[in-house]
Design a protein that fits this description.
Chains: A alpha+beta (266), B alpha+beta (243), C alpha+beta (259)
Low-confidence stretches of chain A: 225-266
Number of domains of chain C: 1
Mean pLDDT of chain A: 83
Number of strands of chain C: 12
Radius of gyration of chain C: 19 Å
CATH architecture of the largest domain in chain A: 2-Layer Sandwich
Number of strands of chain A: 15
Order of helices and strands of chain A: EEEEEEEEEHEEEEHHEEHHHH
Oligomer: heterotrimer
CATH superfamily of the largest domain in chain A: K Homology domain, type 1
Structural class of chain A: alpha+beta
CATH class of the largest domain in chain A: Alpha Beta
Helix content of chain C: 25-40%
CATH class of chain C: Alpha Beta
Number of helices of chain C: 5
CATH topology of the largest domain in chain A: Ribosomal Protein S8, Chain: A, domain 1
Shape of chain C: elongated
Structural class of chain C: alpha+beta
Largest sheet of chain A: 5 strands, mixed, barrel
Largest sheet of chain C: 6 strands, mixed
Radius of gyration of chain A: 22 Å
Strand order of the largest sheet of chain A: 7-8-9-11-10
Strand content of chain C: 25-35%
CATH topology of chain C: Ribosomal Protein S5, domain 2
């Protein structure tokens, strides 16, 4: 058994050396700390179904300026901790009294977490080619722990989304996603992203979303699985044997689900 | 209602329950949009709603702790939740209930994971029928899990009392008013007690028995809490499969 | 009300939709979100209602008890309206006694009910000069999704329409319904870049320059009005809002709030 939905305090393993994220060890046993999906491949870890973003150095995220002080922009990064962007981390040399001219309250930025100290003081930077203020397009918010799902195995999900919608999509580690493109294409991308957010736990997600997108665009769609289900429902009473086969298949599917939810495994 | 002659006759209580029976429980997880985690909990005639915000910035700043999250619990009864309208705002009882409830949950929360932040728990009683604090703790536990707050385990709570010299589980309003003892208890699934209060009169061995009864009640509630959380998730799967 | 920062990007998006005549959730400018009103939800209250208006969720309890009348109205019952923006309902609500937002909401809900003469206060008299029925309307906001004003008002009216005077409990005869004779309906509009939209969502409310609530009664008369927010409104805008509010109130009254 590979994956399992667990609640806080649920027993996971007798081997404390396997304990990883989302677990704690007591009496030489490993337990879950959160309500989420436990995986047992190699190490034992639990990915929570919800929760706040806790910044780590190296994270690429999207922030919103909430305050401008003498030498820092204070940035909302969707975390219990604010990010601090020091004036020296701005890509150009600017004066302290010009700060609002370049970044004012309400402006959105793509930024990098450069450091997080023991007191959870979070330092941000804009000094990087990849980073920039966000001036057009739209930003939506999803659950931070589901970010790997949006990226997909080896980036497959996000690559497919970009391809099908012709939009540029940037997924911040803090669960903020920036989309740019034409109005109706952005609308489509956002619909798909919200669908992913709702359905992270369902199997064959990449295919479902691909089909969804094609449907929305009026293209031909692959229709295999839905047919099977209808057949079972219609022949409910007369073919009990078929039903049980269906059940086993669904069970296999649900184990596969959790696999994909966890995204790239170490 | 004036004191009934008997609160329990031939092992059956006035509301038809046996001594070790809990009142019906209904649980809904994630009922609020703005809160990070929430739970609606019905326990007999009690209707409570719990919400969790956090971890989040601490306001006022001076309440911040440099090496851990600060856990705050606010238990409040709506004016219309009781027979005689209650003036809005905290009274001495609510403040005490808030304190012991917070102390019931704090031991299992991994506060040290979130220095300089707050984990705020709010419990509103919309309808009261004895046992609101235990209903609140049960709901708050679920709301914490719903919010993704890391914990050692859930906490489950129920009250044991004595009526007509018989120990009973989960008192209702009349049993609480006219009974001989009332003892709310909260504990972890492995039986460690995080809340215990008592008023009334219990002999030494009655107390031992009462505690065992409470344990059984709490274990049963823990199963229901777990089921409610699991159900929220699988309901989503079903919903999507039926599309 | 809110001190959360809304990203400029988001404001631009809503504004651009407005220019195209659209709203984020696809509603028309004069359309209300899904509205669900359930009554008799709290058994300890003499009347109660639970309202879900889009993502906004409120519970209203009506408690009725005998009490002493005000000296200047010795033969009239008393209505007292209170509203709690409990911290459970939003990250920006703080615990503590009601502050200006909650007080304003309570007073406007109260005004709508009082000024429309919807309750015949003289019928709430028990013994003139000594004992009258005190009607406490308590609004408990559980989830703020925008436009708490209307949700609270619908809830208060629905709770009153199904409330009973608990005469039996106080040995004053048989229980009877609260004497409601008119049904006030509050309609709230916001101004976003010059366009008027009804029933603002949370973000629409935060972005709007100003908000106007118009409460009208069955006859289509205006019984209460409140402008909330700093931006000025023109006479044309106000008259326009009053017109559509009266029409919309009729719609909502017919569907949800019938005596």
């Amino acid at each position: 058994m590979d994956k399992k939905l667990v609640i806080p305090g649920e027993f996971l393993s007798d081997d404390p050396s396997l304990a990883d994220e989302g677990t704690y060890v007591e009496d030489n046993k490993v337990f879950s700390t959160v309500f989420g999906i436990a995986s047992f491949k190699n190490h034992v870890r639990v990915v929570p179904l919800s929760g706040k973003y806790i910044p780590k150095p190296g994270d690429l995220i999207i922030g919103v300026i909430k305050e401008v002080t003498y030498s820092n922009w204070i940035v909302d990064i969707r975390s219990p901790y604010d990010g601090l962007l020091h004036i020296s981390e701005f890509p150009r040399r600017i004066e302290n009294d010009e700060m609002s001219k370049y970044l004012k309250i309400g402006d959105s930025i793509m930024t990098l977490v450069s450091d997080v100290d023991a007191n959870m003081k979070v330092e941000l930077t804009l000094n990087d080619q990849r980073l920039r203020p966000i001036k057009e397009g739209r930003v939506i918010e999803v659950t931070p722990s589901k970010v790997p799902r949006f990226i997909g195995r080896s980036g497959s999900m996000i690559a497919m989304l970009k391809n099908e919608t012709k939009c540029n999509i940037f997924i911040g580690q803090n669960g903020r996603i920036w989309i740019t493109g034409r109005d109706n294409e952005m609308e489509l991308a956002i619909k798909s992203l919200l669908k992913i957010e709702r359905e992270t736990h369902i199997s064959g997600l990449t295919d479902r979303i691909t089909n969804f997108l094609k449907e929305q665009k009026g293209e031909k769609v692959q229709v295999k699985k839905p047919e099977k289900k209808q057949k079972t429902m219609a022949e409910d009473k007369t073919e009990p044997v078929e039903e049980s086969i269906e059940e086993t298949e669904e069970k296999k599917e649900s184990e596969g689900i959790l696999d994909e939810l966890l995204g790239n495994e170490k | 209602m004036s004191k009934p002659e008997k609160l329990i006759e031939s092992g059956i209580r006035l509301d038809g329950r046996r001594p070790d029976e809990l009142r019906p429980i209904k649980i809904e997880v994630g009922v609020l949009n703005r809160a990070d985690g929430s739970c609606y909990f019905e326990f007999g005639g009690n209707k409570v709603i719990a919400a969790v915000y956090g971890p989040r910035e601490v306001h006022p700043r001076h309440q911040q702790k440099s090496n851990s999250a600060v856990v705050r619990y606010r238990y409040n009864m709506a004016s219309f939740s009781v027979e005689d309208r209650k003036r809005p705002g905290p009274d001495r009882r609510s403040i005490e209930v808030s304190k012991v409830s917070r102390e019931a949950l704090e031991p299992v929360i991994f506060q040290e994971y979130f220095p300089r932040s707050a984990i705020d728990i709010f419990v509103e009683v919309l309808q009261a029928d004895a046992g609101t604090r235990t209903a609140g703790i049960n709901a708050a536990s679920i709301a914490l899990a719903d919010a993704g707050i890391p914990m050692k385990s859930l906490i489950s709570a129920c009250a044991v009392g004595k009526i007509d010299d018989t120990l009973v589980l989960d008192l209702n309003k009349d049993e609480d008013n006219y009974g001989q003892a009332d003892m709310p208890v909260a504990m972890t699934p492995d039986g460690r007690i995080t809340l215990i209060q008592m008023d009334g009169n219990l002999k030494r061995d009655e107390f031992k028995e009462a505690l065992e009864m409470a344990k059984t009640g709490c274990m049963a509630i823990h199963e229901m809490q777990k089921a409610a959380l699991m159900e929220k998730y699988s309901a989503q799967i079903e919903g999507e499969n039926n599309e | 009300m809110s001190n959360e920062i809304i990203a400029e990007l988001r404001k631009d998006y809503i504004y651009n939709l407005m220019i195209k005549g659209e709203r984020e959730d696809g509603r028309a400018f004069d359309q209300y979100r899904d509205l669900v009103i359930e009554t008799n939800v709290i058994n300890k209250a003499e009347g109660s209602a639970r309202v879900k208006l889009g993502d906004t969720h409120v519970v209203v309890g009506v408690k009725i008890q005998p009490g002493t009348p005000f000296p200047d109205t010795p033969d009239q019952g008393v209505i007292i309206t209170n509203l709690e923006l409990i911290p459970l309902a939003s990250p920006v609500f703080e615990a503590g006694p009601p502050r200006e937002d909650a007080i304003e909401l309570a007073r406007v809900v109260d005004r709508g009910i009082r000024e429309s003469q919807s309750i015949d206060l003289s019928k709430l008299c028990i013994t003139p000069g000594e004992k009258v029925w005190m009607v406490f309307i308590d609004v408990h906001v559980l989830d703020d999704g925008g436009n708490i004003m209307d949700a609270a008002s619908f809830g208060a009216v629905a709770a009153l329409l199904t409330a009973k005077l608990p005469a039996k409990r106080y040995d004053l005869g048989e229980d009877s319904p609260v004497p409601m004779r008119n049904v006030p309906v509050s309609i709230t509009a916001v101004d976003i870049g010059g366009s008027i939209m009804l029933d603002p969502s949370l973000d629409e409310q935060s972005i709007a320059g100003t908000k106007l609530t118009v409460t009208s009664n069955q006859e289509g008369d205006v019984s209460a009005m409140q402008k909330s927010g700093v931006q000025p409104l023109t006479t044309e805008q106000i008259n326009y809002i009053v017109d559509i509010a009266i029409e919309k109130a009729k719609e909502i009254r017919e569907k949800f709030l019938v005596i």
